[in-house]
Design brief:
Chain lengths: 116, 114
């Protein structure tokens, strides 16, 4: 099983460039999310999706766009990269039993992004 | 809004010492609670989870956590740590109603001296 796959693993961008971080899962999970991890700040939720066609903002959505056209894929787009977006980005997925129990998330290996 | 507070940012212990990492959350409704671990260079992995029932939850690798509803706490414990427990530990919370947001604490870096 591949689980949650993120590409690329590393990327360096210049300020103002655009980029899409890819995330795919093969577990048929409804719920997918993007986090950024910064030293001393833990993981902060950027955007999440509860199913194909449905997305919502997390704690730090500014500067990022997402879409969910299929259950499997949840790409994260940086439209105009800024140095403040230098971080490690994690994608995660999980399923819900539909009774309010949100199962633990499966995380990808992360994308280390540097903005110069 | 939900928030999660982990009181200790860095903890240094010797092998065989006991561990307790604090986690408090701010949300008045019913919650799902998690502890994740991140070993150096790796992604997050689930240690244990609490949904309902017995407030003392046992997880992998000898870890356990106790949910104290009156204190909004979910502290992680291990009676005797090993060098291989050196990692960063994250507490996470999501609400059973009102959305699927899972909010993480800032993390606690544990270093175990051999």
């Amino acid at each position: 099983n591949a689980g949650v796959t993120q590409t690329p693993k590393f990327q360096v961008l210049k300020t103002g460039q655009s980029m899409t971080l890819q995330c795919a899962q093969d577990m048929n999970h409804e719920y997918m999310s993007w986090y950024r991890q910064d030293p001393g700040m833990g993981l902060r939720l950027i955007h999440y999706s509860v199913g194909a066609g449905i997305t919502d903002q997390g704690e730090v959505p500014n500067g990022y766009n997402v879409s969910r056209s299929t259950t499997e894929d949840f790409p994260l787009r940086l439209l105009s990269a800024a140095p403040s977006q230098t971080s490690v980005y994690f994608c995660a997925s999980s399923y819900s039993t539909g009774t309010g129990i949100h199962q633990p998330q499966h995380f990808g290996d992360g994308t280390r992004l540097s903005i110069l | 809004a939900q928030s999660v507070s982990q009181h200790n940012h860095h903890v240094i212990l010797s092998e065989a010492a006991s561990l307790e990492l604090g986690c408090n959350y701010s949300y008045g409704g019913t919650v799902n609670l998690f502890w994740y671990v991140q070993y150096p260079g790796q992604h997050l992995q689930l240690l244990l989870k609490y949904f309902s029932g017995d407030p003392l939850v046992k997880g992998i690798k000898g870890f356990e956590a106790e949910f104290i509803k009156s204190k909004f706490s979910f502290n992680l414990r291990k009676p005797s740590v090993q060098w291989s427990d050196t990692a960063e530990y994250f507490c996470a919370v999501n609400a059973q109603t009102g959305g699927f947001k899972t909010i993480f604490g800032a993390g606690t870096r544990l270093f175990v001296k051999a």
